[in-house]
Every structure is written in C-alpha cells, then in structure tokens.
Amino acid sequence: MCGRFHLLATAEQVAALYGVAVTQLMPRYNIAPTQPIAAVRHSRTGGRELTYFHWGLIPSWSKDTKFASRMINARSETAHEKPSFRAAYKRRRCLIPVTGFYEWQKVASGKQPMCITAADAQNGSLLSFAGLWEHWQSADGSEIESATILTGAPNELMTPIHNRMPIFIEPDDFDLWLDASAPLPAVQSLLRCYPAEKLRAYPVSTHVNTPRNDDPTCIAPLIP
DNA sequence: CCAGACGTTGTT
DNA sequence: GTCTGG
DNA sequence: CCAGACGTTGTT
DNA sequence: GTCTGG
C-alpha cells in the first residue's frame, strides 16, 4: 500500500525530468490522502502538463465524493477490470513525482514508520509512482479531478516492512505509460516490481503519523 | 425489469 | 457507466 | 496511511 | 468498533 509520501524536489528538477512547466513547488514532507497531489499527464494540446489532483479517485459515475477516501490505491493486478478504475486505466494514466514514501511496519511494540527513498538519494532524487486520474462532475456542476496510486507485490527490501508497495515507472517508459492510445499489453508490462537495490529504507519517528506535521522531522532518521 | 454495488488494506 | 443480484 | 470523532437541543 | 477528515 501507499498512504503517505513526500516530494522534496525543486520546480526545476521536476520540470527537467518530465518536460513540463512548473511555476512553483513547495516542499512537502508529509502528503496525506484527500490532499492535492501533483501529477504529470498528457495535455490536450499534445505535450505534458503538471496538474494537482485530489488524492482518492472519484469514479466519473459517482453520485457523491464519499468513496474517494477509500480509493487512494488501486491494485495493479485488477485495475484493468474494476468498475472504479478500468476507464482511467485505459485512457487516463499519470505519473506522480515523489522523493520518497512511508510505510508502517508492524513490530512488537506497535507500528514503526519507515521512510523509503531512492538508494542513491540526493536532495531531490525523483521517483515516479504509476497513477490513474479521473474527472468527476457533481449534480450542481462543480468539478473535481482526482487520482490514485497503483500498488503491487513488494520487492525484497519491502517484504519485511509491508505486503504491498507502489508501482514505479522509469523515465524510459514515461511516454508509453502516458500514451492513451498505447496497446494495453504494453502498458501492462510496465506494472512490474521495482528493483530492491534501487531503494533504501530507514526508520523515522512517529512524528510523521500526524498528517498536519509537514516538516523535516518527518524524514529525519530515527536515532535509537 | 429495477436495485444496488462499484475499493484497498489489515486483521480475524 | 456497467455489471450482478433479485 | 493515521488521527480523531462518535450527539441533541436550545440559546447566543 | 467504525467512519470521516487530512
């Protein structure tokens, strides 16, 4: 699963990796479900754009937004067939830039939050979650664009921590992932387990548990 | 035909 | 919207 | 994901 | 325990 992450790259770094215009990017140490998340998608004019989406996908046919908080993740194994996700899976894929994410590992004393980043992480080392987005319009005409993060089986690093992890897309595969007309078997081939050697994990304090804590303490290594 | 569901995770 | 259950 | 609420009435 | 909010 993936229920919390951080984005600590500069606007320039995001702009360079995805080839999008980024005007401003506030550092976010603790991004939680229901909050706006930045994601890259194909724009109507043919290029790419960075837009903000409500984290928690709202299917276009929903009567209200109550379902959204349970739609923060979609199983990569079944998203192509689930009523809530299949339309978005076919035509509305996106990339969610992150510099790391959090998982809570069950231990004897309770739950230990772990921070996972790129193995070679410098400040601003970006990874890309595979995401889906959807457009929703309420009866009174208000509109919401929302998104979800695809999950899959854990790699060797993540297995002791949790039984699920997010799907990552590598830069060479960005075009294919974002292409609404790409053949689905090719798209499906991208839903693979990200290599353990490209990630590292370390414990952090329970400071990160509270969503309103959005500061450097969230990512600070826990000193035992 | 209409009504009702449509999800993931973890835990049991 | 689309599928399943009644 | 975790944190925090979980209720009604009448009055201001 | 279970739901809502962030």
Label this structure with key terms.
224 residues, mainly beta, hypothetical protein yedk fold, five-stranded antiparallel β-sheet, 4 helices, 12 strands, DNA-binding
Can you describe this structure in just a few lines?
The chain has four helices and twelve strands; from the N terminus they run βαββββαββββββααβ. It is mainly β and 224 residues long.
Describe the structure.
The protein is mainly beta and 224 residues long. It has one domain: hypothetical protein yedk fold (Alpha-Beta Complex). The protein has four helices and twelve strands, in the order βαββββαββββββααβ. Strand 3 and strand 4 form a beta hairpin. The longest helix is centred in the first third of the chain and has 8 residues. 37% of the residues are buried.
Secondary-structure blueprint of this entry?
Layout: E1 5-7, H1 11-18, E2 28-31, E3 36-42, E4 48-55, E5 73-75, H2 86-91, E6 93-98, E7 100-107, E8 110-118, E9 127-137, E10 143-152, E11 165-166, H3 174-178, H4 184-188, E12 199-203
Parallel strand pairs: 4-10, 5-10
Antiparallel strand pairs: 1-2, 1-7, 3-4, 6-9, 7-8, 8-12, 9-10, 10-11
This protein binds four DNA strands through β5 and β7.
